[in-house]
Design a protein that fits this description.
4-stranded parallel β-sheet, globular, binds D-malate, putative 2-phosphosulfolactate phosphatase, 4-stranded mixed β-sheet
């Protein structure tokens, strides 16, 4: 394909940088490896009807009550007071979540979903659904922004590596004129052979480990374990 006809592919390494990208007429892939987007993919893969991301604990409780839904979320990695469940993907096996609606509020991931509202389409990305996201982006043939949630507006390692992994797989189908994308790909190439070792140096690894969530981290780094394509539209995330 002639390079000039390829859609653009860009990476935003932090929510604080997202305002620099024109999201209208673009597909935004929201990435929060540890753990919001991994939890969303897992819940939907295990049969959740939908996930409603909200930006406050109060809204989570109110919507949960209205819909008779499960309320879940975290602040600084731990279950937020007042909510029934946390943001651990391992809390949502099929035996628990099938057919249910999850109302979820998290520190960074659900906030970023709201920030991306001007996009043409919003896709939920994680290592757990890496291949299906890549296949979808290639098939759609539209401009893409890979948006990393980071931690409280700071760049983080795990989201940047996943952005690099996606880019590395699909870049031949896109026009890449974005240094953040090049940085993400270099990071992926430098770390993917022993990813866990590198992630152990990440700030959120340390934060989650202090709370005993090592199993979550190992799970969230697995590739193609939750083969779903979650799309966020009209206030809810559902399987495409
Ligand atoms: C977030 O959205 O900030 C996170 O997913 C935090 C976490 O639960 O580990």
């Amino acid at each position: 394909m002639d390079k000039g006809n390829k859609p653009s592919l860009e990476v935003s390494l932090s929510p604080a940088l997202l305002h620099l990208y024109d999201l209208s007429q673009k597909i935004v892939v929201v990435i929060d490896v540890l753990r919001a987007t991994s939890t969303i993919c897992t819940a939907l893969h295990h049969g959740a009807q939908k996930v409603i991301p909200v930006d406050s604990v109060e809204k989570c409780i109110e919507i949960g009550r209205q819909l008779g839904a499960i309320t879940a979320g975290e602040r600084d990695g731990q279950i937020a007071p007042g909510l029934e469940h946390g943001n651990s993907p391992l809390e949502y096996p099929a035996s628990f979540i099938q057919g249910k609606t999850l109302v979820l509020t998290t520190t960074n991931g659900t906030r970023l979903l709201h920030m991306a509202k001007d996009a043409e389409e919003i896709v939920i990305g994680s290592f757990l659904n890496l291949s299906i996201v890549c296949d979808y982006l290639v098939a759609r043939n539209r401009p893409v922004v890979l948006a990393c949630a980071g931690w409280k507006d700071r760049i983080n390692l795990e989201d940047s590596v996943l952005a690099g992994a996606i880019l590395h797989r699909i870049k031949s189908h896109f026009d890449v004129q974005c240094d953040a994308a090049l940085i993400a790909e270099q990071l992926y190439l430098a770390t993917h052979n022993n990813l866990m070792e590198h992630i152990q140096q990440a700030s959120h690894y340390k934060r989650l480990s202090q709370h005993g969530f090592q199993r979550d981290i190992a799970y969230c780094l697995k590739i193609d374990q939750a083969t779903v394509l979650p799309l966020y539209r009209d206030g809810a995330i559902e399987r495409a």
